[in-house]
Design brief:
Layout (H helix, E strand, L loop, with lengths): L2 E6 L9 H10 L8 E7 L5 H5 L4 E7 L9 E5 H5 L14 H11 L5 E7 L12 H19 L10
Parallel strand pairs: 1-2, 1-3, 3-5
Antiparallel strand pairs: 4-5
Length: 160
């Protein structure tokens, strides 16, 4: 099973950079084999569907807007992601993950399994650092990714 773990977010917008931060954290702790890709996508915009092509499984890590305290880590299934109606987007995350999945579904080559590891941000204002609450959530978010990989026997944690 070919799997990608993608961090999404703009590191110049405070806690929006949590996706890239978690992927960089994982890069120092996971041994990625031929069937596992770890990548910081930044804000891929219209290129997002291209990153999904050829993968059986994709795990996204990104900031999410849910009613929970900053730093809360929550997993979303593909069905939950797709339940968010596409609409007018006015953010650096255009298209959204569900928009990209719609395109891939239409083309007939969407990943069969999609998970979003979401972290609730404290601030999305211009800053090159994460808030304390979100910084403290990095290990928990990484553990959630490792847990998802372990479900398919893909997590090989290196001790450094």
């Amino acid at each position: 099973m070919k799997t990608a773990v993608y961090g999404i977010g703009n590191i110049l917008l405070g806690d929006d950079g949590i996706g890239p931060a978690v992927v960089h954290y994982l890069e120092s702790r996971l041994t990625a084999g031929d069937h596992l890709t770890l990548e910081d996508l930044g804000t891929p915009s219209l290129d997002l569907p291209n990153y999904l092509d050829g993968y059986d499984r994709v795990i996204f890590v990104d900031a999410v807007n849910v009613d929970a305290p900053p730093g809360t880590v929550r997993l979303f299934t593909r069905a939950e992601i797709m339940a968010v109606s596409p609409g007018i987007r006015v953010s650096p995350h255009e298209p959204s993950i569900n928009d990209a999945l719609i395109v891939m579904d239409f083309a007939g080559n969407a990943p069969a399994e999609v998970t979003l590891v979401g972290i609730v941000p404290q601030t999305l204002e211009g800053a090159m650092t994460l808030s304390d609450a979100v910084s403290r959530a990095i290990p928990a978010a990484a553990d959630a990714v490792i847990g998802e990989l372990a479900k398919r026997g893909q997590a090989r944690v290196a001790v450094y």
